[in-house]
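Side project, low priority. Logging it here so it doesn't get lost.
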Amino acid sequence: MRHRYESEDMPSGICEDCGHFCIAVVRDFGIGPYEYWGARGNHHDYQQVSPCCEVSIVEGDTKVIRTATHTARRDHRDGKIKAGEKYHITVTKHWRKGGPWWITTTKRKVA
């Protein structure tokens, strides 16, 4: 039996592993074809998981706190942004319902 889910019916929330906001997708974690004492079958284990890490989704949300464009005064530690280059910074707050919250910062060079 094949399950068909509409995208608007899928739960949304925070990925339990990486913390990004996402909408669940259906994945089959079954073992597939098998044979047990001469009886053949096909095992399916459909689960609603996050598309990024394929783990469960917990209730929560994300919010962009700040976005800005800067010019680097020195080379950054990760080596991706050098002194004098312009870069875009985004600060995002993530939280789980009734649980912890955390802040992530992403930087990318402006072309």
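Brief comment: The first strand starts at residue 12 and ends at 15.
Revisit when time allows.
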